[in-house]
Amino acid sequence: MYRKLLTLTLLVVAILSVQAQQLTKEQDWHNQDLKENKVMGVSANKAYAELLTGKTPKPIIVAIIDSGTEIEHPDLAENIWVNEKEIAGNGIDDDGNGYIDDIHGWSFLGNANGEHITRETSELTRLYKKYSEKFQNVNMANLSEADKSEYAQFEKIKVEYEKQKEDNLKQYNNVKDIKDFYGVSTEVLKKVFSLDTLTADVIANLKSEDPDIKQAIAFQNYLLANAITPEAIEEALDHFSKALEFGINTEFNPRESIIGDNPTRFDGMVYGSSNVGGQGASHGTHVAGLVGALRNNGIGMNGVASHVKLMIIRAVPDGDERDKDVALAIRYAADNGAKIINMSFGKSYSPEKYLVDEAVRYADSLGVLMIHAAGNDNNNLDVEENYPSPNYLGGGRAVNWLSVGASSMEKDADLPASFSNYGQKEVDIFAPGHQVYSTVINGEYQLNSGTSMAAPVCSGVAALLWSYYPNFSATQVKDILMQSVNNQKKLKVNVPGTENIKKKFGELSVSGGIVNVYNALKMAEKLSK
């Protein structure tokens, strides 16, 4: 039984994006250089040492649209954006932007009573519920052509929803079995070998001819070999428990009681709150740190960019974000001076995509560079959908947009992270996103993996470049990043999600390389002259 359970445990660990591990790699690898440090970082440390001495940068505002950020974190507080046109705590919209007391940004997930949406359903669940209610007991003969088209979509959604529900229940039960077997095997080994505690060294030397004892030893050794801790198992159990309780629960609707708006359209109603931190903000705190945690301050880690102001916009719950919140968040960032918008979130359905499209067009017209995580489903985005997207309904495409895949520190077949989405047309560039160390809530730090990490590393590179060359346009900054990559086009790599299918790295993205700020700054200097 343990072999089956262990295989599922590895899947769980991948889904959780390596959220709880001991540090086994150098904490600053994403800032390091391939030639000097033998890791596939972005060469930020080398750039500061060799190219930027004596130069005066101009701070760049980077909007972090995410789950919120702990703005008091000692490695972030100094770099948090302050809306100087607003007077804190006076209950008045001093700058007339429609948002009261938005000192550090805005939350589209809260209300004036201090309540916040921390969990949401998936977009698939919301669509399943919507169509189930619409087509309940319907007579197909009476459907219009438009409704028949919607019904065909509903049939596809129904199959996918029911499969996801079944898979989540199965995985929850499997992880629960893993937890139970871990507890039983631990107690059995302690009793049989008269041990008070089990350590890696002790387990490695245990021997028995009894089949049940051998199974328990093998199980424990496998967990140790793959760095699967009891904490990771608990996180996995919590993950699937929440998926069942919230993510695929058609009756769960926090939006109605906390926000009370119509989430499918703009109606002029201003909602939300100025509380941009709090519960659920760990993901956004990790993202913010990779862009702009204080450099060389003797604690924690170094962000890529040293002269940034982090505008915090809360719009991403644990579950799928609403298109309306994303659209308003993009508009807020663009209207309040952000030059770069980092978007480390995504989903497979976008029912109100037209609202997001309008916001993206608006930000694009203002010369804002939008940087989006490509996603963690090891999908080819030239074939599969992932939202938000630079491709507009009806045709056309945003110019100032970068889609970012996740890379590892290795220059070998494992360069693209195994979970990363890719696409020779739809993913622009790769950036470090596997086991990257950054800030989290409660003033702490953690290793995380995901394109959610790759996007802010890329945003940090863009911010660093732009802060030293502020006269460049967003399009020029994007073009420089694309043309100055650490080019790995010819390197044969594993296609993400496979073990024996190989392609040239240049077939996984437009640029065929890893974003590199040292190269980008050298190119920018030449162009500036």
Span of the ends, CA to CA? 67 Å
> How many individual helices?
15
Specify the structural class. alpha/beta
What is the number of domains?
A: 2
Radius of gyration: 24 Å
Strand order of the largest sheet: 2-3-1-4-5-6-7
CATH homologous superfamily placement of the largest domain: Peptidase S8/S53 domain
Mean pLDDT: 92
Number of strands: 13
Main beta-sheet annotation: 7 strands, parallel
Can you give keywords for this protein?
529 residues, Rossmann fold, seven-stranded parallel β-sheet, 13 strands, 11% strand, globular
Description of the structure:
With 529 residues, this protein is α/β, with parallel strands linked by helices. The protein folds into 2 domains: 1-26 and 148-251, no CATH class; 32-119 and 271-528, Rossmann fold. The chain has helices spanning 2-15, 34-37, 44-50, 123-134, 145-192, 200-204, 211-225, 230-247, 254-258, 282-292, 323-335, 353-365, 451-468, 474-483, 517-528, and strands at residues 60-66, 105-107, 308-314, 340-343, 369-373, 401-407, 429-432, 436-440, 444-448, 486-487, 492-494, 502-504, 513-514. The chain has a 7-stranded parallel β-sheet, sandwiched between helices. Strand 11 (492-494) and strand 12 (502-504) form a beta hairpin. The longest helix has 48 residues, at 145-192.
